[in-house]
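Colleagues,

For the teaching module next term, I've prepared a clean inverse folding example: a structure given as tokens, and then the sequence designed for it. I'd like students to try predicting residues themselves before seeing the answer, so please don't circulate the second half yet.
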């Protein structure tokens, strides 16, 4: 279901940070720098120093030389709930932010909702957890190549070094990249089902689902953090449009900003394929084609990206980028299992017991804009998943061994409501073992494998003759870091660089 929204003006685009509206496809190299603040003066000085270099959503030039005119680097910044008071924002202003943002991703309440336990518990995280230095801000750096990224990182670290009271958290820096193959480490084409922002192209998901200050799916303005005008004497922030006639005049700190959920997800590629191979072995003989069939059933797409509802029996690379499909004709999951990852993350018209249009409307209220990048070297050449005629390829798949090198995805999503978008999708659709009428079937990739009744999570594959149920699912994806972030507009950044607590 699509919606029409008024186009975002050039003035608004110049105020919205670029990563909200663009995946920076032309900038494949990425670094994440995690920042800790010890003095408000230093924090404000740092924000002021970088605010002029932050990349906006301003439209790039079009024409025959477009590729030459696109920037070779981009820089964006976001702050945590601990970071806002660290740069001088008063506590009573922080309380105008949503509760889940104030709690932080690593808090016990959020961990319970997200299913972050056992190996994924925040206490074990590399960054963002209770055992590490508090994250106050994150710099997102993008570049056309490794040399440009290195130059950008060195420049930003020099600014940090020049601002006393602000420092990069030692050993926390992360790097990622956008693979030329557009595949994730399990070997499947990724990044296909991305919603479009209605304000950028006329049709798509309402702008207010991703950007504060605009109408959302329900025709309402999402809640926004506010500032008393006494803290904004120079009227840097726009005046809050106040329908409730509150006596105090307020500044809108959220307009043209958004919230981000960041998670470092480590993938155990060898364990994933060993499980698929052992589950589909016949008479002790492993069959690569059957292993790929089961893996595809768990994900909901074939390695090429072809959706199972359009190619139920075999991979079809010609359908690799197709996203225009529905589940109405596959109500029992015979083509794409009800518990498959993509069917849970974006149920389309398949939410039971709701009819198609109602399901589409409900799904549209919980969309996410993904801006992730992979990290670590691939364990294998994913192209061989489509070359099953090769005995060598089959042997490679069945003989995969972990090389001890970390690899996975830096998951990053944009949403105007962390609670009703990111947390809802994770808790209600991915972690839920009863999704779609199932019994003990959480999301096989990112679901919470712990069950309230102590039963292990499994994957259920519906078939005409009888359902196939796997053995208990091991954890293929582990959370290694995380944070909830507020990405302010460029106007709000300028304000944060000058705010004085009172």
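(Answer key — instructors only)
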């Amino acid at each position: 279901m699509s919606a029409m929204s008024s186009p975002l003006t050039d003035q608004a685009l110049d105020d919205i940070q670029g990563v909200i509206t663009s995946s920076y496809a032309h900038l494949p190299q990425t670094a994440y720098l995690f920042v800790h603040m010890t003095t408000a003066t230093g924090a404000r000085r740092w924000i002021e120093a970088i605010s002029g270099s932050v990349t906006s959503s301003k439209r790039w030039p079009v024409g025959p030389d477009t590729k030459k005119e696109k920037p070779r680097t981009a820089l964006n910044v976001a702050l945590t709930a601990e970071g806002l008071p660290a740069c001088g924002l008063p506590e009573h202003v922080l309380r105008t932010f949503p509760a889940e943002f104030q709690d932080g991703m690593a808090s016990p309440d959020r961990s319970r909702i997200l299913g972050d336990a056992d190996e994924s518990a925040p206490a074990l995280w590399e960054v963002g957890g209770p055992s590490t230095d508090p994250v106050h801000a994150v710099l997102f750096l993008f570049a056309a190549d490794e040399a440009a990224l290195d130059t950008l990182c060195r420049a930003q670290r020099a600014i940090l070094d020049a601002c006393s009271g602000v420092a990069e958290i030692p050993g926390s820096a992360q790097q990622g990249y956008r693979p030329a193959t557009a595949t994730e480490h399990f070997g499947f084409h990724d990044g296909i089902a991305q919603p479009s922002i209605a304000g950028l192209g006329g049709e798509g998901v309402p702008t207010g689902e991703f950007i504060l200050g605009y109408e959302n799916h329900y025709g309402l303005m999402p809640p926004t953090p506010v500032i008393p005008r006494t803290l904004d004497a120079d009227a840097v922030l726009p005046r809050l449009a106040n329908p409730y006639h509150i006596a105090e005049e307020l500044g809108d700190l959220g307009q043209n900003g958004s919230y981000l959920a960041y998670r470092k997800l480590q993938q155990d590629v060898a364990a994933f394929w060993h499980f698929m191979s052992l589950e589909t072995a016949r008479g002790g003989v492993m069959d690569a084609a059957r292993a790929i069939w089961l893996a595809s059933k768990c994900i909901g797409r074939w390695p090429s990206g072809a959706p199972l509802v359009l190619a139920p029996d075999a991979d079809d690379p010609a359908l690799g980028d197709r996203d225009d499909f529905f589940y109405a004709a596959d109500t029992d999951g015979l083509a794409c299992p009800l518990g498959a990852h993509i069917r849970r993350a974006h149920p389309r018209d398949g939410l039971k017991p709701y009819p198609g249009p109602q399901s589409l409307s409900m799904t549209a209220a919980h969309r996410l804009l993904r801006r992730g990048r992979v990290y670590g070297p691939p364990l294998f050449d994913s192209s061989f998943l489509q070359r099953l005629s090769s005995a060598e390829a089959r042997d490679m798949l069945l003989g995969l061994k972990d090389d001890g090198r970390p690899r996975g995805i830096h998951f990053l999503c944009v949403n105007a409501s962390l609670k009703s978008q990111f947390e809802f999708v994770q808790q209600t659709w991915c972690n839920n073992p009863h999704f779609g009428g199932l019994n003990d079937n959480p999301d096989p990739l990112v679901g919470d494998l712990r069950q309230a009744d102590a039963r292990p999570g499994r994957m259920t594959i519906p078939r005409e003759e009888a359902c196939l149920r796997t053995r208990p699912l091991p954890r293929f994806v582990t959370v290694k870091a995380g944070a909830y972030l507020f990405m302010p507009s460029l106007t709000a950044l300028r304000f944060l660089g000058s705010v004085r607590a009172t």
